[in-house]
What does this fold into?
Amino acid sequence: MPTLKPKKMTIKAHYEPPTKVITEIGGFRLVQDLPKEIGGTGEGPTPTALLLASLAGCFGIVSAIHRDRFGVNVESMEIEVSGLIDVRGFMGENVKPGFTEVSAVIRIKSDAPEEAVKKLIEFVREHCPIEDTIESPTPVRVEVIKE
It folds into this structure.
């Protein structure tokens, strides 16, 4: 395995009216939007849905990378992530705008012992960058440049 060092990731996005944000990520085009019923064009998932999808993706990828370490042959894996959010906060009311709870159900089909599967998922949760970012305070600095 190559020597790994801390890495800065930078993502650039641009806004397209009325509510779309387009991001180019490693050769992929990601469209984020709002549903039509709340003023969007419905051309992409919401940023909050993508946060949940990122957590599911992280669980799956970290599992794939480390399954051999725990002797877990994964025949199939389904990851369901849910979040409880009060959209009134997003709409400007004085309630928490972000998720108040996030939960996941991971279904793994494997011939490995249940204890090995549990140890793998415990390791995954300890090493998933998305869960770590959601669970622990991460400073966000914003600089505004008026052009």
